[in-house]
Amino acid sequence: MIQERTSTDGMHLFAVFLLLLILSNSVLANPRYSSIVIDADTGVVLHEASADASRYPASLTKMMTLYMLFEAMEQRKMTVESRMPVSAHAAAMPQTNIGLRTGDNISVRDAIPALIVRSANDVAAVVSESLGKSETNFGRMMTDKARKLGMRSTTFRNASGLPHSEQKTTARDMVILSTRLMKDFPKYYHYFSTQSFSYKGVTYNSHNRMVRNTSGVDGLKTGFIRASGFNVATSAKRGNRRVVAVVMGGNTAAARDQHMAQLIDRSFNQGNQVAQVASNHKNARVVAVANATAAKINAPTPALKPYPEQQKRPDSTVKQYVIPSVTNTQTAQLQKVSLQTNNDWAVQIGSYYESDRAHAHAQAVARWIPGEVAITEVKISNRKLYRARLVGLQENQARSACQSLARQGIECLVVRS
Description:
Blueprint: H1 8-29, E1 34-39, E2 45-49, H2 61-74, E3 83-85, H3 88-91, E4 105-107, H4 108-118, H5 121-132, H6 135-148, H7 171-184, E5 196-199, E6 202-205, H8 210-213, E7 217-225, E8 229-238, E9 241-250, H9 253-280, H10 284-297, E10 319-323, H11 329-338, E11 345-352, H12 355-365, E12 372-380, E13 383-393, H13 395-407, E14 413-416
Antiparallel strand pairs: 1-2, 1-9, 3-4, 5-6, 7-8, 8-9, 10-12, 11-13, 11-14, 12-13
């Protein structure tokens, strides 16, 4: 438990120190993590964390393979009926694949969902040889195209994303590619929401669960190799606004998806604030202020939570400790509003292996928002964890509090208490 300090400056310095320690521990725990979210219409960055750090793209590579294929179709070098021959090299590609054999051929119509839904490595090699004569040459073509699109930190060496020490990218470059796929080839974007396809009597289901599980998500691509962790590029539209996001380095597919869903929810909320500022003022100076506001709102957030509760599992609650929060003037004012009934909402700020860490983090966060600190001991997959929440809030108050924490760079989740 954190000892209360009489000096306001001292409390703030301690809270900042604690936050930096938590962020440092998160990064060390998952050095492959990076992420970025942008507003698709304005290009405003709504969130970024290690967005320029070099990463392995894994099967996000296939988005560039598809970009090259769509471009060939636009240039009328290929049509959906065009058939592409399968070489011995392509047929030898490891899983995942659709079992193409040397001497086979496959239509562009089948190749597109095979790349998106199945993430088929053999099909990626077929496309590369059809467009670039060899996969090595196609890698050079992909890299040249990346430079033209503004992807300055990306190098491609193959069409599939299979491990290669020189095949590198960044989250920022992947969000550029995602955006350009939508804007340059709008009539083909619908393919990225495909959830299943059949080929030669076999039905394949998509690895991309974001499309069916997260409100507004309508496409793009997942990827995984051991060196990269779990990657995903996602686009979502709610109302008249669209965001595009990339998360790289997830420890599990479920953790990656949960984190992406949280980033999308938060970014729509934050982006609405920026859009309102821009819509009220038409001149470039004020739009620049709106962009600066977005940057301030979105200080880099920590990587995936110390122990993200990525799947809904049966929890065995043993104990709950409630500690009065430490309030300051701003918190006291907010609490006056909250003294009403039905305060059954909470802000969850993480789960930890150690009770002391959960207490310390929760107490530090309580300096910024109202509510009482509640530490709940739970068991998940036979592991004892301590879940930290600020409880006793109304729904709108909890959501406002979570947005406030986001501005401080602190991950949070609004839940029923």
